[in-house]
Amino acid sequence: MDLSDAISIRTLDGGLSTELQARGHDLSDHLWSARLLIDDPAVIVAAHVAFYRAGASVATTATYQASFDGFARRGVDYGQAELMFRRGVELAQQARAELAEDGHQRWVAASIGPYGAALADGSEYRGRYGLSVGELTDWHRPRLSVLADAGADVLACETVPDVDEAEALVAVLGEIGTAAWLSYTVEGGRTRAGQPLDEAFGLVAASREVIAVGVNCCSPVEVGPAIEVARAVTDKPVIVYPNSGEQWDGKWSGSSAFTAGMAREWVAAGATAVGGCCRVTPQQIAELAAVLDETKS
């Protein structure tokens, strides 16, 4: 993805897993949405199409919780797992191709979740896995390398809870020389591991490969303050896609706090690309796209 394209994108997609569940799939599996790369790839295409039709400029692949370890537990060997990672990108590209005649520009972001996501125990909302930066670098390297070669427009290193993991991801991106965005999951104005956001964003400020920074899978109330910090410590474009604001403790509870109108304040504060994460639907992305179109005029 050319940097000029990256900073012109406005609307991201929403919660892919939410849409897959709405289409009747039980994702209570250690692979989560990546299970459907094996079991029902067609429904992933349909979900991507739904978000694209709603106005999303970017489809984020169903590889967030995919890992070589996780596929191995499913009985999928290394070579087959590589094919599944590539399939994630191909399915999003297929969805884009289905809509090519309408003339809109669309992109594919290869989702790279944190180490904690592969543990399938909520660790991505805590960080502090007990692994060194070197160990995390070694763990991330194989799947980043495969996804970097799979043809996506950009890598989406997302829901990063810990500065140590961000350091590992930046190291691998530097090795392979592929463009990525890096977004933290935050709570109380800090990373989930408790580090200050100025330290977190400052860590990636000098990376040539990280073309945008931001936050995702956090409450919408966290977004505004995070944009302010990101803008203060880096000149990179800022990308934000919170979840609904409901609480996750093995299941979702509480009320949604996500409204499309919030995007006006986020863009005014300096956000360049806006979308949604868990529990944000295609309908809400359609509303968001309409609001973001207003900000361009």
TrEMBL record:
Span of domain Hcy-binding: 1-292
SUPFAM superfamilies: Homocysteine S-methyltransferase
Biological processes, Gene Ontology terms: methionine biosynthetic process; methylation; S-methylmethionine cycle
Keywords: Metal-binding, Methyltransferase, Transferase, Zinc
Residues that, per the record, bind Zn(2+): C217, C277, C278
Cofactor note: Binds 1 zinc ion per subunit.
Necessary cofactors: Zn(2+)
Pfam families: S-methyl_trans
Source taxon at top rank: Bacteria
GO MF annotations in UniProt: S-adenosylmethionine-homocysteine S-methyltransferase activity; zinc ion binding
InterPro entries recorded: BHMT-like, HCY_dom, HCY_dom_sf, Hcy_S-methyltransferase
Gene3D superfamilies documented for this protein: Homocysteine-binding-like domain
Alphabetized PANTHER family for the sequence: HOMOCYSTEINE S-METHYLTRANSFERASE-LIKE ISOFORM 1, ZGC:172121
Name of the protein: Homocysteine S-methyltransferase
Species per Swiss-Prot/TrEMBL record: Actinokineospora cianjurensis
